[in-house]
Specification:
Layout lengths: L1 E2 L10 H13 L9 H21 L4 E6 L2 H11 L7 E5 L4 H12 L3 E5 L1 E2 L3 E2 L1 H7 L4 E5 L13 H11 L4 E5 L11 H4 L3 E5 L10 E6 L24 H16 L1 H22 L3 E4 L8 E6 L4 H9 L3 E2 L8 H10 L10 E5 L9 H20 L1
Parallel strand pairs: 1-13, 3-4, 3-7, 7-8, 8-9
Antiparallel strand pairs: 2-10, 5-6, 9-10, 11-12, 12-14
Helix pairs in contact: 1-8, 2-8, 3-4, 9-12, 10-12
């Protein structure tokens, strides 16, 4: 098997499996119970919060653990205070977790402006500047686009918000950024930042939201008052601590992984463009190396995906969460009609090796020849 869909999910680290086993079987205590083993577990969850803040280079604030990056996005978009500022700005290329939350805001009577994108789905800064004013209560722009790998300059966005809409909160979905490119929240100017464990070789079912000090969110669930009263539920101890372990490894290994994956993406891109006619690479100059988005002329991306699957090669056609999101992003890329249905995504991790490249490229060449010939018949 050659797995090139790491933006959808990643293989969990062996260390995380050990943590999950330990805190599910031998140290399975409820952190809210009054005895010492529970208090010890509670302290370790606190340590995990501090570890994530340190790895994020975050300003003063809290880490709220959630069941997913989607829940973290929902919490930020739907539960952030806006006061009399009843306008929200959301980039048109957001993950469906933010985009659907923005649609819900509209249903609740909030005015939502969907910001146009350029340069491979990065937000158009001039368009953003043009709609910022005192009526804006929330801006949500993802750090790295999960379809194209386009990187938004959070510091520039924050500076525009501070100048033209100083009362607005700034949220960024960092699910495809943290552990894959350098992240420094102090320099970024964000008020809220979403994370997901299974994108960085941690377990599924656990995410987090960084919330800057002074931002007071409304609770999303009610009960025992866990997670500072915002998300009442017994903590997912094994997931949280495995998430923290995965994050430590991801940030520690980031420099070497970044160099490896940057070279890998360049090799794939170069060989595919040289071997396959009529292919477009989607994405701007400032792109995360973890994602290579391609559009093939006279092909359907889903058909190519399944053809490669038969060869034991797994790629993506975009967000695993929403086919509608994939169609929306394809439209935003302004592709010629002949390329519009031929979008696929290769996404890499440190588990991928250069030795896989020729096998994948040869398979793509062969399948493109067959599928294009079939289309012409």
């Amino acid at each position: 098997m050659i797995y090139l869909d790491n933006a959808a999910t990643t293989k969990m680290r062996d260390e995380c499996l050990g943590v999950i086993a330990e805190y599910s079987c031998s140290r399975f205590f409820n952190p809210s119970a009054p005895y010492k083993p529970s208090a010890d577990v509670s302290r370790e969850i606190k340590d995990a919060r501090e570890s994530l803040k340190r790895l994020l280079h975050a300003p003063d604030g809290d880490i709220i653990f959630t069941a997913s990056g989607t829940e973290a996005d929902n919490l930020a978009v739907l539960c952030a205070p806006r006061g009399k500022r009843n306008k929200a700005l959301v980039s048109a290329s957001e993950h469906s977790a933010v985009y659907a939350s923005a649609c819900e805001l509209e249903a609740r009577g909030c005015e939502v402006v969907y910001l146009p994108v350029a340069d491979g789905a990065a937000v158009d800064l001039s368009a953003l500047k043009g709609v910022l004013d005192d009526s804006v209560g929330l801006v949500s722009v993802m750090h790295v686009n999960n379809e194209t790998g386009a990187v938004n300059d959070l510091a520039k966005i924050a500076a525009l918000i501070k100048k033209h809409a100083p009362g607005a909160l700034f949220h960024s979905d960092g699910v495809q950024a943290f552990g894959k490119i350098p992240v420094n929240l102090i320099n970024s100017g964000v008020d809220m930042y979403s994370l997901s464990a299974h994108k960085i070789h941690g377990p599924k079912g656990v995410g987090a939201l960084f919330v800057k000090k002074g931002v007071r969110l409304k609770p999303v669930m009610f009960g025992g008052g866990q997670e500072n009263g915002l998300r009442s539920a017994t903590e997912n101890v094994p997931g949280i601590l495995a998430f923290a372990a995965a994050a430590e490894h991801a940030v520690r290994d980031l420099p070497s992984n970044l160099a490896k994956i940057t070279a890998l993406r360049a090799e794939y891109s170069g060989k595919i463009l040289a071997a396959v006619p009529n292919v477009i690479v989607n994405g701007g100059a400032e792109n995360s190396p973890n994602i290579l988005n391609l559009a093939f002329k006279d092909l359907r991306g889903e058909v190519l995906l399944h053809a490669l699957e038969k060869r034991g090669i797994y790629i993506g056609t975009g967000s695993a969460c929403s086919s509608k999101k994939h169609a929306r992003i394809s439209g935003l890329l302004n592709l010629p009609d002949a390329y519009a249905e031929g979008v696929v995504r290769l996404s890499f991790s440190a588990c991928n090796t250069p030795t896989e490249t020729d096998t994948v490229v040869d398979a793509i060449v062969a399948e493109c020849e067959v599928l294009r010939k079939f289309k012409r018949i």
